[in-house]
User: Fold this.
Amino acid sequence: MNTALSLLAITLYAIATVLLWQEIRQGHARYKLALLLGVGAMFCHGTASFVGMITPAGMNLRLTEMSVLISWFVVMITLISGMLRPLLNILVVIFPFTAAVLIITLLVDTPARLLTQPGGMMFHIILSVLSYSVLTIAAIQAIALAIQEYRLKHHQLRGILKALPPLVTMEEMLFELVLIGFVLLTLSIGTGLFYVDDLFAQHLVHKTAFTLVAWACFGILLIGRHRMGWRSRTAIRWTLCAFALLLLGYVGSKFVLEVLLHRI
Assistant:
């Protein structure tokens, strides 16, 4: 990963976060500038990710490179979706989250994990990255919804609450994100069965198990919403629990293998 581009992206994300926070807290008219800086950071971020992943020997799929790629998709999807739905205000959380990911990946060195013959695996990887990205946004949306509910309950109507859409809209967007992420995760698991030869090999058992349990939790949440009308508090708990399982399965297993055991 290109260090200079990563540092520039981190700086732009940090400045954009400060401007967004000032907009929320004080009403300064710097929203467009913050978005412009965010777009600039996204391009630096994406270029750094591309440079790190694409090597003469093949695609580097180690934990750090994949984390940078997923966080880039999180920013890009949020910015694009913000044109259709009121998602842009959660950028005040997504920008510092993404900057933190970039900082950690600059500090952590893991062995390269090269994919020399992508073939059908590329389709599986793309679906996996997209599903993780959308479900990451869903988890952030769930946290924002939890904060919104808490502040409404305690009659704290200032600050970030004023910048968020109505509670019903926030809830609808959460279920939309979970549904899209669930479909993508289903396709990712399905393609994995076809294209990953050693899906149940020893080093993938834990990842596969956690992913399947997370997939089941997201499915139960969607069924509960459809049949029993589950609302925000239940949705928040199920979304965050399912995402934690997904995160533990993917990041946890790769962290142990690549960082602690130095295996690929």
Q: What stands out?
A: Strands lie at 54-55, 58-60, 114-115. The chain has a mean pLDDT of 84. The CA atoms of residues 51 and 161 lie 39 Å apart. The longest strand covers residues 58-60.
